[in-house]
Amino acid sequence: MAVESWLQMLKCSKKTALIHDGKRKIHYLFTDGNEMAEEYNLNTDVLLVRKWRKKSTLGVQGQWQLEIGEPFAAGPSDAEIKENGSNPIFSRTDTKTHFQWRIRNLPYPKDVFSVSVEPPERCIVVKTSNKKYYKKFSIADLDRIQLPLNSDDLSFTLVNSTLIITYKKPKEILTLEQELLKEVKKLKGTSENDVDCKTHGASVSRCQSDGDVDV
């Protein structure tokens, strides 16, 4: 999908905005029934969360799948904390100019790690020389508009047992994000204190449901 096609798809989707807790929350409903939800920091315009909910071939709505954001942002249960306390935790938290991933709980020195781009597979590969960790992941933003991966744009560091992987955003992505932000800011963001979908029966064009907008 070309940049223009993806941007047009976003512009043509049914969008709902909600301003709450210092965030601009946007819900997208596409013509195929799939949904995307995003959260922006109101002060910095940095994208904090992006997640997807897609329909199966039978038309059944699936669970929300996180693309950007902390996996436990909603608050983990005690069981989740105990289970994942020592296991590596993978998350993506971008900046305005870079894609960025964090892998926590990796108690090895930096020289053990290898982080590389695999162009044929369109992915980034993380591995350790002691064979204690291996991870392969793609950059969804580049896949959506079929941009190639460049090894020169990739870097990594290790801080307090957390591997931080950074990939410089191509100019096409920066332009796309600026255009999308303009569209997002055109939406009249309803304050959560001003509307209650269930009580006041807001129309679908304004508010899909509590679960759809409050992301």
From TrEMBL:
UniProt xrefs under Pfam families: DPCD
Superkingdom of the organism of origin: Eukaryota
Signal peptide (UniProt feature, chain positions): none
Region (Disordered): 189-215
InterPro entries noted in UniProt: DPCD
Biased composition (Basic and acidic residues): 189-199
Membership in a protein family: Belongs to the DPCD family.
Protein name as catalogued: Protein DPCD
Organism: Neogobius melanostomus (round goby)
